[in-house]
Structures are given as C-alpha cells and as structure tokens.
Amino acid sequence: MGRAGCCVRERFLDARTLRAAPVGAPDFTVGLRGYRTDVVDDLIRIGREALGSDDPVERRAARRAIALGREHSLVVAARGYDTFQVDEALDALDAALAVDPSDREPT
Questions:
Q1: What pTM did the predictor assign?
Q2: Euclidean distance between the first and final Cα of the chain, in Å?
Q3: What is the Cα Rg of the chain in Å?
Q4: In terms of Cα–Cα distance, which of 58, 61, 54 is closest to 106?
Q5: Across residues 41-56, what is the average pLDDT?
Q6: Fewer CB atoms inside 10 A, N or C side of the chain?
C-alpha cells in the first residue's frame, strides 16, 4: 500500500475497532518531549477502574475525567510517554467506556 493508505489509517478512526480493542495496562515508550507520566498513569488508572464497573454513572464520570485531563492536564514534558501511543490508548479506553456494560459479551 502506498503512503496515502498509511496517512488515511492514522487520520480516520473506526469506532468499532476501538471498541473491540482490549484496554490493558499499556506499555508506553518513554522519550524526549512526551506526555507527563504521572498524569497519563492517573488517567489510565481512572479509566481501567471504571471499566470494571457496571455503573453507567461511574463510566460516564471516568470518560469526563479523561476528557478534562486530556484538555487541561495532558502536557508535554521534557521527558515522558510517547504522545501518539498515549492518544491511541486513551481513544481506545474512551470507546470501551462508552459501551453499555449490559451489551458486553459474557465471559
């Protein structure tokens, strides 16, 4: 596939794919000019805790906390987590939290 296919994949997100993506403990690359690790760790923790809940209010609160954290607290530091990896993980976490717990497949 040519270069255009690569760019399209990065630009457009398929919500169905994001919902199906497992949201585990991410292993982010640490490097120069990345997101502050403490802020990212807090956002991931909040989202993962809410994923285990069947309470839609808790899940909405976690989505709101992640959105606010992304808007106000997610800043680039001299050294931190890879921004692209974090953005993808937070997108997947948000999509997973948006799924109604009653719609989940039984495990």
A1: 0.69
A2: 37
A3: 15
A4: 54
A5: 92
A6: C
